[in-house]
Amino acid sequence: MNEMIKTNDGTNTLFSHKYQQYFHDIKVGAMNESLYKHIVPAFSFHKNKKSLRILDICFGLGYNTFVTIYYILKNKLKVKLEIYSPELDKDLIDSLSTFKFPKEFDNILHIINSLIKTNKFEDENMYIEIFIGNAREYIKDLKNINIVYQDAFSSLVNKELWTYEYFKDLYKACDNDVILTTYAIATPVRLSMYKAGFEIYEMKTFYKKHTLAFKNKQNINVKYIDMILKQSRNIQARALLD
Length: 242
Ligand SMILES: C[S@@+](CC[C@H](N)C(=O)[O-])C[C@H]1O[C@@H](n2cnc3c(N)ncnc32)[C@H](O)[C@@H]1O
Fold this sequence. Notes:
The protein has 242 residues and is an alpha/beta fold. It has helices at 30-45, 63-74, 90-95, 109-118, 135-138, 164-173, 187-195, 227-233; strands spanning 2-6, 12-16, 21-22, 51-57, 80-87, 120-122, 126-132, 145-150, 174-182, 199-205, 208-214, 223-225. It has a 9-stranded mixed beta sheet. It has a 3-stranded antiparallel beta sheet with strand order 1-2-3, with no helix packed on it. A hairpin with a 3-residue loop joins β6 and β7. The model has no long low-confidence stretch (mean pLDDT 97).
């Protein structure tokens, strides 16, 4: 059902025939997208924390989870990790046993294999679980999340993971110091987040804008997006609803 494609940074991704979308931005590259839109902003923000609870929405090919581990090992970070990741498609997880991952993951193959076989991995420094099922239900039972990688397919085809009601449940699952990272920049998506309580910020990487969100306003060197002003300039724009 899914077709493997090489992206511009040399790493592989899939095209989903079900959603009619690529799992990653082909021009930016799968590894680069994960590293620079999600992992680097999240770990720069939380650089002093000794333990982190991460929600990876959704597991897909697992890049965001695997690049997180790669980044921690490469930078010798002393941080204990818990990663929680829902994924609807069990066949996709099973198929990852033949997926060609980047060579950067060679030393974490034991973790990848355990996740594919048992949907879990645990050692003294990390606990990772893949929940096979709907993220909408799964997030209702989570608490104290410090990082959210919000990486569903786009709202055109995967709307249930971009609505106001979804972000309201997500907000409850998050700690006060949460950072949410996402490639999405559309005003309706940002309004869904904002109306659920998140403050919206914007970064630019590889000439492309992407969004960060927090529970509170931040004193950081990233552009703040005033959603009240934005909506007053675009009165047709609406948050997405279930
Ligand atoms: C863009 S892909 C995720 C890419 C992933 N972060 C990666 O690095 O490979 C979106 C994933 O969300 C899954 N998905 C879509 N809707 C879902 C839902 N309601 N609950 C759980 N998983 C869902 C899809 O099956 C797909 O694997």
